[in-house]
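Students often ask why inverse folding is considered easier than folding. One informal answer: many sequences map to the same fold, so there is more than one right answer. In these notes we will look at a single instance of the problem. The structure comes first.
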C-alpha cells in the first residue's frame, strides 16, 4: 500500500502527517505498527510520532496521534499546530478556525495565513488545565499537587502536576544545564504515583514573563519541544507565584507564547509549524 505523507515539525518536535478519513490505512496496518515502522530514524522516515486525520461525526475532523514507540497519547500541542497547517494547506479543511476532536476533548486551533495562502502561525485554544490529582492521574490526597515531593532513585523531586489532556509533572530548577533530563525524566515518568506515566518538564525561571524548559515526554523521551508541556509549565509557574498568567517559554526547538485566560480558564498557545518535506511511502 502506498501512503502519501507530509513530514512536519513544530519547534523541532517532528511528525508524519497522513490522511486516513477513508480508513484505508487502518484497515491495512495498525497505527501502532505503522508508527514504530515510519518513525524509525534509520530505517524509516523518522519522527516523534505519526498524526492522522480521521472523520468525526461531531467535529470538523478527528486528530489521532501515535508516539514513535506505538503508544497513543491523548493530545500533543506541537502536533496540533502542525495538524492545523496540514489540514489548511492540503485543502482537507480550509477554515481559519477548526473544531478538532481529540482524546483530550475538543481543541480549537486558529490559523494565521499570508496572502499566498501559507499558514504562518497557529494559535490553539488548549482548553482548561486540570489540577485535580485523580484526573491527571496522580496519587495524592490533596486538592492540588503543588511542588509535591516524589521520591525517586535519583533523589526527591518536587513536582506540580497538571493535565492538559495528558499528564504533566513540572519541576523547577535553578540551572537547567545541571539537570540529567534522561535519568530524572525517566524516574519521574515511570513513578508508581503516576499510574498512566507522565510527561516531565524541567523549568528554569528567567523572569516573571519568561521560562526556559527541557522536556522528557512519555513514550518519546527527550524532545526539542512539547506544546502541552509548555502550557502545563506556565500553569505551574503561575500557581506557585513565579510568573503572571502569560509567558514566553523557551524550548530547545524555539519559543511558544502561552496565555492563561483567567476569565474562561482556557490556555492559549501560539507558535510556528513548518513543512519539512512531503512524499509517499509503501507499507
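Output (designed amino acids):
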Amino acid at each position: 500500500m502506498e501512503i502519501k505523507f507530509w513530514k512536519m515539525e513544530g519547534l523541532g518536535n517532528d511528525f508524519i502527517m497522513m490522511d486516513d478519513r477513508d480508513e484505508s490505512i487502518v484497515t491495512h496496518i495498525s497505527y501502532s505498527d505503522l508508527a514504530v515502522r515510519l518513525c524509525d530514524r534509520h530505517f524509516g522516515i523518522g519522527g516523534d510520532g505519526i498524526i492522522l486525520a480521521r472523520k468525526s461525526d461531531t467535529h470538523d475532523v478527528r486528530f489521532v496521534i501515535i508516539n514513535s514507540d506505538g503508544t497513543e497519547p491523548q493530545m500533543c500541542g506541537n502536533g496540533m499546530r502542525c495538524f492545523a497547517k496540514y489540514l489548511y494547506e492540503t485543502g482537507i479543511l480550509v477554515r481559519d478556525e477548526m473544531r478538532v476532536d481529540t482524546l483530550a476533548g475538543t481543541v480549537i486551533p486558529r490559523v494565521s495565513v499570508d496572502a499566498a495562502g501559507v499558514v504562518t502561525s497557529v494559535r490553539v485554544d488548549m482548553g482548561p488545565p486540570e489540577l485535580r490529582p485523580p484526573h491527571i492521574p496522580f496519587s495524592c490526597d490533596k486538592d492540588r499537587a503543588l511542588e509535591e515531593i516524589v521520591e525517586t532513585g535519583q533523589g526527591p523531586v518536587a513536582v506540580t502536576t497538571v493535565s492538559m489532556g495528558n499528564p504533566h509533572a513540572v519541576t523547577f530548577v535553578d540551572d537547567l544545564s545541571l539537570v540529567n533530563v534522561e535519568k530524572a525524566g525517566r524516574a519521574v515518568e515511570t513513578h508508581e504515583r503516576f499510574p498512566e506515566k507522565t510527561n516531565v518538564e524541567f523549568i528554569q525561571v528567567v523572569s516573571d514573563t519568561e521560562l526556559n524548559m527541557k522536556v522528557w515526554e512519555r513514550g518519546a523521551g527527550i524532545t526539542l519541544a512539547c506544546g502541552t508541556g509548555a502550557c502545563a509549565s506556565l500553569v505551574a509557574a503561575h500557581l506557585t507565584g513565579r510568573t503572571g498568567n502569560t509567558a514566553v517559554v523557551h524550548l530547545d526547538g524555539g519559543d511558544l507564547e502561552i496565555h492563561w485566560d483567567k476569565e474562561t480558564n482556557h490556555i492559549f498557545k501560539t507558535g510556528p509549524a513548518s513543512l519539512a518535506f512531503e512524499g509517499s511511502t509503501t507499507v
